[in-house]
Amino acid sequence: MEFCFPSSQESLAREDASAQPEARTKSGVDNDLTRQCSLLIQKWGYEKLAGIIVVAWNARMRSTAGRAFWPDGRIELNPKLIDFSAEEVRNTMLHELAHLLAYARAGRKRIKAHGMEWRQACCDLGIPNERATHHLPLPSREMARQWRYTCPVCQEAFDRVRKMKRYAGCYRCCKQHNGGYYHKKFRLVESRIC
């Protein structure tokens, strides 16, 4: 009897990208996806990031498909993606990985989350026409706006979910009448929406 064990490179090449993730991976770290991301990042020469990258399922996610945490190298995916398709899981994982790759390339430079650097990273990872948002039928919730802030000069109102912690002025009035600088006569008046 003879046994043949393929090298890790051979087994990765044969893995079916459309294979459905197992149900056991619906929460916690997914070692298979972590390994795939690590290998992709190593391909681009970011060994340090490849060593810390972790892909995990976050059961608390509702309307978000995924998110990436820089510089932690952590990607969290919504377990509901499994119900859609393996391709959706893969695309979301690559979308989030592109964020990490873009930030790794930028170093200390500040970049836009879905800016030029991210789009280039998407192209490099094989998802050239990736969009910044998803159109999946995930549940979303609308938060009731509880606070209204009104400019005493122009009477423009701004509704907010959370109460502002500091004073704020009407941007338009400050810009038009005070060279873009804050002045207390443009301070927004707070009121509670019932």
Explain what the structure shows.
- This protein has 194 residues and is α+β, with helices and mostly antiparallel strands.
- The strands form two sheets. Strands 1-2-4-3 form a four-stranded mixed β-sheet, with helices on one face. It has a three-stranded antiparallel β-sheet with strand order 6-5-7, with no helix packed on it.
- The protein has helices spanning 8-14, 31-43, 47-52, 81-84, 86-106, 116-124, 171-178, and strands at 28-29, 54-57, 66-69, 74-77, 147-150, 157-160, 189-192.
- Helix 5 packs across helix 6.
Give the CA-CA distance, first to last residue.
Answer: 78 Å
Architecture per CATH nomenclature, i.e. the level-2 architecture of the largest domain: 2-Layer Sandwich
Number of helices: 7
Q: Quick one: CATH superfamily of the largest domain? A: Metalloproteases ("zincins"), catalytic domain
Mean pLDDT level: 86
What percentage of amino acids are in beta strands?
5-15%
**SSE order in H/E notation?**
HEHHEEEHHHEEHE
* Shape label: elongated
The low-confidence runs, each spanning 5 or more residues with pLDDT under 50, are 1-25
Reported by name, the CATH topology of the largest domain is Zincin-like
For the biggest sheet, the summary is: 4 strands, mixed
Strand order of the largest sheet: 1-2-4-3
In brief:
With 194 residues, this protein is α+β, with helices and mostly antiparallel strands. 35% of the residues lie in helices and 13% in strands. Strand 5 and strand 6 (157-160) form a beta hairpin.
